[in-house]
Every structure is written in structure tokens, then in C-alpha cells.
Design the sequence.
């Protein structure tokens, strides 16, 4: 990289034109495989979901939310993965959803989606589908 290019890159970063990396909690930049299920009774209510209102999760959307498997949710301290936006890919497509809850599933990579989110990636009648996901960029 030339000195002029380096100076230009620094100037863009200082000017705020380079977007900061999305909040990744402690999930990193890897890709995960697992299964997605859906729950019809997910409700966007801080009294119901495991994630507290925080700097990374100021409000809950009315739908399109996910619960992260117990293995990945419980690592670290103070629910570091609450508010992480993940991109989930299923048989029908992709969707971005925030982590707002702890799923009962014990396997790393598994997610629990609300019905609206699940319908974007698979047929609801399937109930459980194989997925891949990663922290959204």
C-alpha cells in the first residue's frame, strides 16, 4: 500500500465514512451449521425473552427474532450475544434477525426462530430445517 493510499484510508476512517464492524458479541466471524425450529408464541417482550434491554438491544422488533442455542448463548458473561444480528440461510432463502433469547436446543449452531422469520427461510410445515448462519455484515 502506498503512503498516499494509507493516508486516504485513515482520512476516510477518521471522517466516519468507513462503517464500524457490526456487533458480534463473542460469536466471531465464522459460519455455523445447525437446525432451525420455530415457535409461534414468541412475543417481543423484555419480560419474556432472556435478553435484557441493553446498548446492543435497545428495543425488540414485532417479529423476526431468534433464540440462540444454549451452548453459544451461555458462553461468556452477561449475555454478550444479546443484540447480535445474524444472517440465517435456509432452503428458501436468507433473513437477518437479532438474537433476543436463549433457545432450549443444546447443540451449537441451532436456532429457534419466530414463525415470521422461519417462513422466510423454509416452509412452516417443515417445522425443523438445516441452516447455516453467521454474524451479519
Sequence:
Amino acid at each position: 500500500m502506498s503512503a498516499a493510499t494509507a493516508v486516504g484510508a485513515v482520512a476516510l476512517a477518521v471522517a466516519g465514512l468507513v462503517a464500524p464492524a457490526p456487533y458480534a458479541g463473542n460469536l466471531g466471524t465464522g459460519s455455523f451449521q445447525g437446525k432451525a425450529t420455530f415457535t409461534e408464541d414468541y412475543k417481543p417482550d423484555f419480560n419474556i425473552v432472556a435478553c435484557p434491554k441493553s446498548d446492543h438491544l435497545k428495543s425488540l422488533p414485532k417479529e423476526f427474532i431468534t433464540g440462540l442455542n444454549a451452548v453459544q448463548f451461555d458462553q461468556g458473561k452477561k449475555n454478550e450475544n444479546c443484540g447480535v444480528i445474524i444472517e440465517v440461510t435456509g432452503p428458501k432463502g436468507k433473513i437477518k434477525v437479532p438474537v433476543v433469547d436463549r433457545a432450549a436446543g443444546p447443540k451449537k449452531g441451532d436456532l429457534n426462530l419466530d414463525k415470521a422469520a422461519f417462513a422466510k427461510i423454509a416452509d412452516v410445515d417443515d417445522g425443523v430445517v438445516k441452516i447455516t448462519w453467521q454474524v451479519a455484515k
User: Anything to note?
Assistant: The mean pLDDT is 85. The beta strands are 31-39, 66-68, 85-90, 93-102, 111-114, 128-135. The CA atoms of residues 9 and 18 lie 9 Å apart.
